[in-house]
């Protein structure tokens, strides 16, 4: 049984997708955001659809944040003592090919772009 406990939600700078870190199964879920033409049964927008789910390359993923240009998603993995970095498409907001270089650190619970 896969149990997820969402820890952080981050909107991609393109406004096209939403990323959610999941603590207990150590994944990140990426949802596309549909606006306008697509609505739920009550006629409300936006509607989220799961686009991709990928491992966070660490244990107990906590906070996530996109780089200002949207080319990378940084994932704070508390119990593996690292910050992983997934490449993203800057136009679509979807995960791109490969991973950037991560870093080892204490027990990160927050990632902030300065």
Can you give me a brief rundown of this structure?
By secondary structure, the chain is an all-beta fold. 0% of the residues lie in helices and 48% in strands. The model has no long low-confidence stretch (mean pLDDT 88).
Can you put this structure into words, describing what you see?
Helix content is 0%, strand content 48%. It has strands at 6-11, 17-22, 27-34, 47-55, 61-66, 72-77, 82-88, 95-99, 103-104. Strand 1 and strand 2 (17-22) form a beta hairpin. The protein has a single domain (6-104), classed as Beta Barrel (Thrombin, subunit H). By secondary structure, the chain is mostly beta strands.
Ends distance: 38 Å
Number of strands: 9
Could you say which overall geometry the principal axes of the C-alpha atoms support?
globular
> According to CATH, what is the class?
Mainly Beta
SSE layout and pairing:
Layout: E1 6-11, E2 17-22, E3 27-34, E4 47-55, E5 61-66, E6 72-77, E7 82-88, E8 95-99, E9 103-104
Antiparallel strand pairs: 1-2, 2-3, 3-4, 5-6, 6-7, 7-8, 7-9
């Amino acid at each position: 049984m896969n149990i997820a406990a969402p820890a952080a939600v981050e909107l991609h700078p393109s406004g096209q997708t939403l990323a959610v870190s999941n603590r207990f199964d150590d994944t990140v879920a990426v949802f596309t955001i549909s606006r306008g033409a697509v609505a739920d049964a009550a006629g409300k927008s936006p509607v989220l659809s799961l686009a991709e789910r990928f491992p966070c390359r660490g244990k107990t993923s906590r906070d996530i944040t996109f780089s200002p240009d949207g080319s990378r998603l940084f994932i704070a993995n508390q119990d593996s003592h690292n910050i992983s970095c997934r490449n993203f498409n800057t136009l679509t907001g979807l995960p791109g090919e490969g991973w950037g270089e991560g870093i080892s650190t204490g027990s990160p619970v927050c990632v902030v772009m300065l």
